[in-house]
Design brief:
The radius of gyration is 13 Å and the shape is elongated. The protein has one domain (8-57). α1 packs antiparallel against α2 (35-57). The chain has helices at residues 8-31, 35-57. By secondary structure, the protein is mostly helical.
């Protein structure tokens, strides 16, 4: 497991960026007819969503 240390401002900025990107990713996933791409995007959403939840659990 790798460790990445972030300051409060960095963590808050990353959380905001992830929230924005996840919205766009969901829109892209829903709009694709390619099953393989759909699966990849869904996996990315899950991983990034977990990271976002862990970031939010930390008090900025």
């Amino acid at each position: 497991m790798s460790v990445l240390e972030l300051g409060a401002k960095e963590a808050a900025t990353l959380a905001t960026a992830l929230e924005s990107y996840l919205d766009e990713l969901a829109t892209e996933r829903v709009g694709t007819d390619n099953r393989e791409l759909h699966g990849e995007l869904k996996e990315q959403e899950a991983i990034l969503g977990e990271i976002l939840e862990r970031l939010k659990a930390v008090k900025f």
